[in-house]
Design goal:
mainly beta, Neuraminidase, four-stranded antiparallel β-sheet, globular
Length: 625
């Protein structure tokens, strides 16, 4: 009989406590609790950052940490492409032909879109094919038969598509193979054509897998060997318009209908097993992933959705990054300054006005009020008053060492807080408002703003004096900043000249003397705030084009090179006071201006705190008899 050591390669150890970093396959006897313990396996879907554009019937390719989503129906049908890095979504190159219901296969940097639809419901499917190189789509040779709601498998140089709707009421159960240049006929599926539309597929050209289908809903599953299809064990729940990913021996199926379902199933090469459900039931959902242990599902509907969920099967329990409610401030305010973290928050100045329950526009009165948050922002207390009331100022520091610089109306005063009181400091060489600041009370940077007009100039502070810094090539106001004098990040805002209110997607890095361009935001915004450092930041609370639904809820994350979407906020506010030391460590967002009903302006005292994604090892206790 095989022993544990012969299987795993190590003995069961005896210990008085659980190891801090258990290894996969490791088991131990905890003599303190008298239990046999080891790493357990967690299977779960968790929410991730949303798509920038909600849509259904989009196509997917790639793996969980490098996925591609393209096309889809918003409505109308779209040519947009988005790239996912395992954290959030960024904008990719646009398809040459807008479409939905296309087949997708390949990887994020070498993908294929084949077929699809951009007409009326009764119109014919398309045969156009495009290849993606990680930046742009290029039109290539067409498929032999135009169709939509088909499935795909393989890679760019060895692809496979199958099934689909040719036109109403003509369906197809045929396959075509792609060699990177030309299409040729492949084997015909055994599943009848009326059950071979809106199906899912994965695998390779010589080891493919198809499952589900409609409009005659089926649970059929078939494998492909490069020549012919073979029927194998069915799914537990028949459905069409579903998502899927993986390979011929390790796959996932999720969502679909009718009726619309959240059910997910795992394929092991022989049979399907019910697994954890999606958090949100959807049809026309897209997905990507290499196997049944790691996947990402996105989009779907109805109505068109931007939701993204990740599936993981591992010994770690993942908790998605999220915003949660904290204690409200003692008063309503917008355009205030903020410093510190969730365990020592500080909010100062801003515009005061009616409470959320009042009717009417906010009162435009710069305030000297301040308030201090307790650990985890469980409560707030009123703090020492500023010497000069102001809003739209530069703000930086900690709860015991903060600075308030410039502000509305075009102020040049600076003040420093030492944990007990505010002290007037040296004036700026020129007053400004709607500016951004970062650094410390002994080494600070003030950038952009309106003097008026909008400006790209900056000032540096050494603890005693302000001097001119490098000039940004862009004139920007209502922007955000984080970092230090020698490693600063400035992003978003309005770009000039005034009275322009064009939303900027630009990012700039400062090295202590000059500015250089950084990665572009996924969504241009103004009146935003930043938290973190130059190489790990989040942007929140911005005001964005009215044509972008729920835009104020969008958080964007930066790694020093690229921006992607982040966790969604629950409060639809801009002009909020925000601060934090890093994306996953202590960011909070307070107050602001929001519109709960059309045409009515309100200020807020609401506070949210951000917690980044966490991972904890799952340890189980095993029976010994």
């Amino acid at each position: 009989m095989a022993t544990y050591k012969s299987i795993v390669g190590q003995k069961i150890i005896k210990t008085t406590s659980d190891p801090s970093e258990a290894k996969t396959g490791q088991m131990w006897y905890n003599s303190t609790t008298g239990t046999l313990r080891g790493l357990g396996v967690v299977e779960a879907w968790v929410s991730s950052a949303p798509l920038t554009t909600a849509r259904q019937q989009m196509s997917g390719a790639g793996i969980q940490t490098a996925a591609l989503g393209f096309g889809g129906n918003t409505p109308p049908y779209t040519n947009k492409t988005e790239e996912y890095n395992g954290i959030g979504w960024a904008t990719g190159g646009t398809l040459n032909t807008a479409r939905y219901g296309a087949a997708g296969f390949g990887i994020q940097t070498n993908a294929v879109a084949a077929g699809g639809y951009s007409g009326t419901d009764s119109g014919p499917g398309q045969n156009q094919t495009e290849e993606y190189n990680g930046t742009a789509w290029t039109s290539v040779n067409n498929m032999g038969t135009g169709r939509r709601q088909l499935a795909g498998a393989g890679v760019e140089t060895a692809g496979l598509v199958f099934g689909g709707r040719v036109s109403d009421p003509t369906f197809s159960n045929a396959s075509e193979e792609y060699d990177g240049t030309n299409w040729t006929a492949g084997g015909t599926m055994n599943t009848p054509a009326p059950s071979s539309t809106a199906l899912a597929g994965c695998g390779t050209q010589t080891a493919g897998l198809r499952f589900g289908g409609s409009p005659s809903v089926t649970a059929n599953t078939e494998t492909y060997d490069g020549t012919s299809w073979t029927e194998v064990n069915n799914m537990n729940t028949g459905r069409g318009e579903l998502g899927g990913n993986g390979n011929q021996t390790s796959a996932l199926a999720y969502g679909g209908g009718p009726p619309t379902t959240a059910k997910a199933e795992s394929w092991n090469g022989t049979s399907w097993t019910e697994g954890p459900d999606l958090a949100t039931a959807r049809i026309n959902i897209a997905g990507a992933g290499a196997n049944n242990s790691a996947a990402v599902a996105f989009g779907g509907g109805p109505p068109a959705s931007s939701l993204t969920e990740e599936f993981n099967k591992s010994s770690n329990t993942l908790t998605a990054a999220a915003w949660s409610s904290a204690a409200n401030m003692p008063y309503v305010v917008q355009r205030a300054g903020a410093s510190g973290t969730v365990d020592a928050a500080f909010v100062f100045g801003g515009h005061r006005g009616p409470s959320d329950s009042s009717i009417g526009p906010p009162t435009d009165n710069p305030t000297t009020n301040t308030c201090l948050g307790s650990a985890s922002i469980a409560s707030w207390t009123n703090g020492p008053a500023l010497n000069t009331g102001r809003s739209s100022m530069g703000a930086l520091g900690t709860q015991t060492a903060s600075m308030c610089i410039g502000g509305d109306p075009y102020r040049n005063e600076s003040e420093t807080y030492n944990g007990s009181s505010w002290t007037e400091g040296p004036n700026l060489p020129a007053g400004r408002q709607e500016c951004a600041a970062c650094g410390t009370t002994s080494a600070a940077l003030l950038a952009g703003g309106s003097i008026p007009p909008y400006t790209g100039t900056s000032f540096e502070y050494d603890g005693s004096n302000w001097t001119a810094g490098g000039t940004n090539p862009a004139v920007m106001t209502n922007t955000g900043a984080v970092g230090s004098v020698t490693a600063a990040l400035v992003a978003a805002g309005y770009v000039g000249p005034p009275p322009s209110t064009a939303y900027s997607s630009a990012t700039y890095h400062y090295d202590g003397s000059s500015w250089t361009s950084g990665g572009s935001l996924v969504l241009g915004t103004g009146f935003c705030r930043l938290s973190g450092v130059q190489t790990a930041a989040i942007l929140m609370n911005g005001s964005t084009p009215g044509s972008t639904p729920n835009a104020h809820l969008t958080t964007q994350q930066y790694d020093g090179t690229n921006w992607v979407t982040g966790a969604t906020r629950s409060q639809d506010n801009s002009n909020r006071a925000s601060s934090g030391t890093a994306p996953a460590a202590g960011t909070f967002s307070a107050g602001g201006y929001h519109n709960p009903s059309p045409g009515a302006g309100y200020l807020s005292e609401v506070v949210e705190e951000y917690v980044g994604e966490t991972s904890t090892i799952k340890i189980d206790t095993f029976q010994t008899s």
